[in-house]
Amino acid sequence: xxxxxxxxxxxxxxxxxxxxxxxxxxxxxxxxxxxxxxxxxxxxxxxxxxxxxxxxxxxxxxxxxxxxxxxxxxxxxxxxxxxxxxxxxxxxxxxxxxxxxxxxxxxxxxxxxxxxxxxxxxxxxxxxxxxxxxxxxxxxxxxxxxxxxxxxxxxxxxxxxxxxxxxxxxxxxxxxxxxxxxxxxxxxxxxxxxxxxxxxxxxxxxxxxxxxxxxxxxxxxxxxxxxxxxxxxxxxxxxxxxxxxxxxxxxxxxxxxxxxxxxxxxxxxxxxxxxxxxxxxxxxxxxxxxxxxxxxxxxxxxxxxxxxxxxxxxxxxxxxxxxxxxxxxxxxxxxxxxxxxxxxxxxxxxxxxxxxxxxxxxxxxxxxxxxxxxxxxxxxxxxxxxxxxxxxxxxxxxxxxxxxxxxxxxxxxxxxxxxxxxx
Length: 423
Description:
By secondary structure, the chain is an alpha+beta fold. It is built from 16 helices and 17 strands. The strands form three sheets. Strands 1, 2, 3, 4, 5, 6, 7, 8, 9, 10, 11 and 12 form a twelve-stranded mixed beta sheet that branches. A three-stranded mixed beta sheet has the order 13-14-15. Strands 16-17 form a two-stranded antiparallel sheet. Helix 3 packs across helix 5 and helix 5 (202-209) crosses helix 7. It starts with 7 loop residues before the first strand and ends with a helix.
């Protein structure tokens, strides 16, 4: 088997130092987390287990892994420092697969597995290195045979068996959009739903939860233990988390907010003070914000972040420091189309849309919707009376609040009827 250009054997990654954007070491790689996928797809690498200097182990998703070299693993952005907790459907490559026997006679064992990059910051398992004990030696010890490298497809433990178990469903979810996962959760029987939800990672569950009808969101979050519910809420967009928390009993809501990370809870609390059908209640506090000395090149680098929705990536906002919301004095906004037409060294602050006014946080839904229609926008700034940027409203949140309360449930029921008719 010819090694792919980006192929990396995991035994060589384990133990490497992990460095941040400044080049400072933050820990070491202890293992690689993957999960098996359905329909004959290669197992996907989910992230790495990192051991910090305090010996606490955390999870670093592959989207944060910028580069892997023979000497180090470089990461970008913030990582969650909560202690790593393994999900039922996850495999730890070193702990679970290294030294595992293959075949009936158990003389062939896995001694290494490679992964390769299939696209930007997405990795899959690729090759499996095997070593066989060819004979029993004079003193009863196995002799060592030649090593061979085979495809992951030849290893039964890396192939998903057929069925509709929680593991099989989650494997299918790995390549599905959040709305489609929500539809699957909506259709599951209560017993199966609980098993799947328990095995899902917090980020995937949060994204699917945002797509469920409100009553199902409340029912599902209420069935989780408090710590897990707080973790899932922390992974949701702050505006969606705030909408959900508003519908919970006040004592339950406060308990969840207390258990969330302070920074994430602070974002949600700031949104809770606004009415649900106002610009402040609909906005996200995490738009793309740049300083006045930022260049077009820096702006484009920021909007390329995978975590951004297309709507949020369509506009950048310029403010004085601090650049976190509520920001310093709001200067203005620039559309991505304008950024794409300018030289990379141009200052973003010279490209502001002078005709775009900002929304106030108390602007009602009717005013917000007319504002979007008037300016043909997919995202708009929200600025308070002191001139500070509070966040941005996206068109999907406007539509979500304009549609009937039960529109998600009606849509899911229509899908079910359509599937029955097609059958």
